[in-house]
Amino acid sequence: MNYLKCVSCNITYSTSEVRYRCDCGEILEVKITDWNKLKKNLNKKIFDDRLSSKEFPYQSGVWRYKELVLPVSDKYIITKSEGNTNLYSGLNNNKGFQKITSFVGLQNLHLKHEGENPTGSFKDRGMTVGITQAKVLGVKAVACASTGNTSSSLASYAAAAGLKCFVFLPKGKITTSKLSQSIAYGAVNIQLDGDFDAVMKTVQKVCNEYKIYLLNSINPFRIEGQKTIIFELLQQLDWQIPDWIVLPGGNLGNTSAIGKGLFELKKLGIINKLPRIAIIQAEGANPFYLSFKTGFKKKFEVRARTVASAIRIGNPVSFIKAKKIIEGTNGVVEQVSDQDILDAKAVIDASGIGCEPASAATVAGIKKLVGKKIIKKDHQVAGILTGHILKDPEITLNYHLKKLSGYNSRYANSIFETNTRTISREIRDFLDD
Ligand code: F0G
């Protein structure tokens, strides 16, 4: 039986208990018990065979790795065949992608698009597991605080599971696209004054008081699902290890998940070395970066401000877990400006792939680390794009309409308002360009 262990004082708890924190106040992680059995039964071939499987639940890019994720009876599993997301590169005639490789100054680049999950973000990988655990525990209602993607994902999976769902949102601080998703999927949407960090505190109190199951990434089962991003990415690379894995950091759940997944694959003998991990934060929401700069001697809390609303987080819940990941992978934490994020987003969008602003931090960060020669030009880099282009249409439109005050729309594309008399002139100009 797997168990829960405190990340700080090592006290253990049963997975059948509803618990997110140790008595000491720190968060918990799922520990796998039976490594010998897993080593005997699991290998690359099993996962590769399941890639072509139509059998439930292995068609899901999360449950393909079920033994490492949540070894429960299939009768509890709530899945939407999440995962199976594309790993893009400049290979196979992808001219669009070459815009990204020249932007970052690096040829050997892959981008895994987690925005291609059912509700448009990587959160679905954690949510299928969190909601399945909710079914195992027999809870009636679930909740989360969110900058918009967790709430969209939870609302959708709760609907699939027939559970009551409450989402707590910082009022006026999430995109209309994300707000419309959680409303439409049928969650009770509760908008509160204050920022994400304040709402996160409130939801923990509410969940304890009303015995509602909390499905933020503080819930260790969410992390178990999100580990599969790295399992699937490495499988797509034929289990070759890139030099770097790069992703944005907000509440730092995903950092924790990807690192945990890597450590477990190594323990299992499926990989024999680790890539370095680079976490990218927005300059205005950079507590993890500030802490990294002190060698993690100090922990910071900031009032978060950035155009990338998904990572507008000033007091990350998974700080300790993420710190261990950076230390254990010889990783780095970098910060990028909002202008860097907007430029990177415009280039990713124009490549034909597209993503939301928080995801563009990945590419902006790669560019910055290449510029600083921390990532070398001959390194192989795999970045994670965390959310879909349609998650924040306001920013995209305002950028191209040059209406983002204080920012330069240097990669803006053309939008014409014209009439049938002059239309041919504009098309000719564009063709001749
Ligand atoms: N990218 C996107 C698109 C996100 O939605 C988030 C987090 C992150 C990156 C950062 O991931 O928090 O695991 O470090 N969104 C959360 C939410 C907080 O409520 O949707 P993290």
UniProtKB/TrEMBL annotation:
Q: Does the keyword Chaperone apply?
A: no
N6-(pyridoxal phosphate)lysine sites (modified residues) = 123
What biological-process terms (Gene Ontology) are attached? Answer: isoleucine biosynthetic process; L-serine catabolic process; L-threonine catabolic process; threonine biosynthetic process
In terms of SUPFAM superfamilies, this protein maps to:
Tryptophan synthase beta subunit-like PLP-dependent enzymes
Q: Give the catalysed reaction(s), semicolon-separated.
A: O-phospho-L-homoserine + H2O = L-threonine + phosphate
Keywords attached to this entry: Amino-acid biosynthesis, Lyase, Pyridoxal phosphate, Threonine biosynthesis
Mind listing the GO molecular function terms for this protein? L-serine ammonia-lyase activity; pyridoxal phosphate binding; threonine deaminase activity; threonine synthase activity
EC id: 4.2.3.1
CDD domains given in the database record: Thr-synth_1 (cd01563)
Question: Domain Tryptophan synthase beta chain-like PALP, which positions?
Answer: 103-387
Q: Which domain of life is it from?
A: Bacteria
This protein's pathway reads: Amino-acid biosynthesis; L-threonine biosynthesis; L-threonine from L-aspartate: step 5/5
The protein's matches in Gene3D superfamilies, at most eight in alphabetical order, are given as:
3.40.50.1100
Q: Which Pfam families match?
A: PALP
Q: Keyword Transmembrane: yes or no?
A: no
Q: Which cofactors does the annotated protein need, by name?
A: pyridoxal 5'-phosphate
Q: Which family does it belong to?
A: Belongs to the threonine synthase family.
The protein in question is named Threonine synthase
The organism named in the record is: Candidatus Gottesmanbacteria bacterium RIFCSPLOWO2_01_FULL_39_12b
